[in-house]
Amino acid sequence: MKLIYSVHKYDVFMFTRLINAGVYQHLALFSRYISRTGDGHLYALLIGFLYLREGVESVFLQTLLFAFLIERPVYFILKNGFKRNRPQAALKNFHSLVTPSDQFSFPSGHTSAAFMVATITGFFMPLLMLPLLLWAALVGFSRVVLGVHFPTDTLVGMVLGVSVSFFSLNQLMS
Questions:
Q1: What are the residue numbers of the active site?
Q2: Distance between CA atoms of residues 10 and 6, nearest Å
Q3: What's the domain range around 156?
Q4: pLDDT tens across 52-78, in order?
């Protein structure tokens, strides 16, 4: 319990430093747009494009679908198992800039999905790997700026997304 308390204390410290930074208002506007790119619409477009272009035989498509079939349930179990309050519920006098789609904070689903899609897409299109990982990192950062996640929520989301990617690629590519 002491470790969890220490992590939460560090999270609150880092979160409040960011929220009180002089550039926060500029980051907030940018973060709204970046966060929306992780809402799932682009993933559906990518899946639809792959299906239309390559058909159901596409290993890229199969890997993405397999990864989502693993990542979403694991994310849901973790989120509802840990039941970590979002910053708005955990901190007095703080209001997030957007309304989250669910109650709990840990891990960040936006971050998890973004890193998963970025990693898998980067595997199949290596020239895009670095830009996609930068985008995924910005999605995670934007969720903290918008006040719906603490930093470790996004860190664990990243680990979850990359781990599921590697697992899925290993299963379907071997």
A1: 110, 149
A2: 6
A3: 2-173
A4: 999 999 999 999 999 999 999 999 999
